[in-house]
Design goal:
The chain is mostly beta strands. The protein is built from no helices and eleven strands.
Length: 126
C-alpha cells in the first residue's frame, strides 16, 4: 500500500522558516509527479508546487512562485518544501500528493493526483 507521510509543519512567527518533507513508502521512481497542495480553513485546496521526478522539472502556483523551492532526495524517497520569510497568509494544512501517471497538463489540479498524505499543519502567527 502506498503511503505518503508529511512532517515538518508547526507554529512559527512571521518571518520564520519551516521545511516540510514528504516521504513515500515506495521507491519514488514509481511516482512520475509529486507535489504539494495547501488548504486554509474555509478555502479551496490550492496548488503550491509540483516536480517531475525524472526530469526534475518544477512547477509553482502563482501565489508561491519565487518564494518556495521544491526539491527531492531520491535515495530517501523524499520531497522537500523549504519555506522562509513566512507570512500569516500561508497558514494552512499542507498536503503531499503523487501520481504514477505521466500527466502532461494541469499539474495544478488536485484531481490529477492519486495518492495523498494526511497533511501537516503550518501556522504562522503575526
Amino acid at each position: 500500500q502506498v503511503q505518503l507521510v508529511e512532517c515538518g509543519g508547526g507554529v512559527v512567527q512571521a518571518g520564520g522558516s519551516l521545511r516540510l518533507s514528504c516521504t513515500a513508502s515506495v521507491r519514488t521512481f514509481s511516482f512520475l509527479v509529486m507535489g504539494w497542495f495547501r488548504q486554509a480553513p474555509g478555502k479551496e485546496r490550492e496548488f503550491v508546487t509540483a516536480l517531475r521526478w525524472n526530469s526534475y522539472t518544477t512547477y509553482y502556483g502563482h501565489s508561491v512562485k519565487g518564494r518556495f523551492t521544491i526539491s527531492r532526495d531520491t535515495a530517501k524517497s523524499t520531497v522537500y518544501l523549504p519555506m522562509s520569510s513566512l507570512k500569516p497568509a500561508v497558514t494552512a494544512l499542507y498536503y503531499c500528493a503523487a501520481t504514477c501517471r505521466n500527466i502532461a497538463v494541469a499539474l495544478g489540479q488536485s484531481a490529477q493526483y492519486d495518492y495523498w498524505g494526511q497533511g501537516t499543519q503550518v501556522t504562522v502567527s503575526s
